[in-house]
Amino acid sequence: MDDFPAGFAHYPLYFSPSEQQSLIASVKAGALQAPFYQPTMPRTGTPLSVVMSNFGKLGWVTDKEKGYRYETTHPKNGNPWPAIPQALLKLWDDVTGYDARPEACLINWYHKEKTSMGMHVDLDEHDLRAPVVSVSLGDPAMFRIGGPKRGGATKGLKLYSGDVVVLAGDARICHHGVSKVFYGESALVPKGGRINLTMRRVNILKQTT
Ligand code: SIN
Ligand code: FE2
């Protein structure tokens, strides 16, 4: 895509409306085992504006005491995270062609008005060569991406329900965030808002040859 970092890809409406419905059903089912919870920033304890859960062997969590990390269990109820739905693993295979599957799928729910996600780089994974794949469901959002350094110019792209974004190559280590959610524009998410699913490979696959 013009002017976007190399390795950035956007697949508008990758998932049809009925596929989006079934992803939402998977999120709802997963939330029975691993309910959405309010994460907090390292050190300050400031709550993030989104609420979170995860699918996968590893889930990304954050809190005041221990900061950003991956955990095998839910921080509040100790349950393992539900498995990553097949439709998402199939997406990963389709858009990355990467030789290892993701262990983690973070679920961010922009659940109320004025939720956003500050500019950041995903750096808690050991395998930074593996792409990050993200799925947008529900209300549209303004996604922003800049360069590898904090600050500087950013480009915006409005993401709609069913869209997929891939951060591979140079884009994998670029700052990105969500500046605005167009709250109330979609009826897909039962209690409203936007759900973002972000798959990541955490550990480097050991060579067996
Ligand atoms: C993130 O990068 O953590 C979320 C991106 C998104 O919600 O689209
Ligand atoms: Fe991110």
Protein traits:
single chain, 209 residues, alpha+beta, Jelly Rolls, 29% strand, globular, binds succinic acid, binds fe (ii) ion
Order of helices and strands: EHEEEHEEEEEEEE
CATH topology of the domain at 15-141: Jelly Rolls
Q: Using the alpha-carbon principal axes, give the shape.
A: globular
Largest sheet: 6 strands, antiparallel
Oligomer: single chain
CATH homologous superfamily of the domain at 15-141, by name?
Alpha-ketoglutarate-dependent dioxygenase AlkB-like
Question: Strand content of the residues, in percent?
Answer: 25-35%
User: For the residues shown, what is the average pLDDT?
Assistant: 97
Gap from first CA to last CA: 36 Å
Helix-residue proportion: 10-25%
- What small ligands are held by the chains? succinic acid, fe (ii) ion
Write out the strand line-up for the largest beta sheet, numbering strands in chain order.
Answer: 1-10-7-12-5-2
Q: Please compute the radius of gyration using only Cα atoms.
A: 16 Å
CATH class of the domain at 15-141: Mainly Beta
Q: What is the CATH architecture assignment of the domain at 15-141?
A: Sandwich
Structural class: alpha+beta
- How many E strands? 12
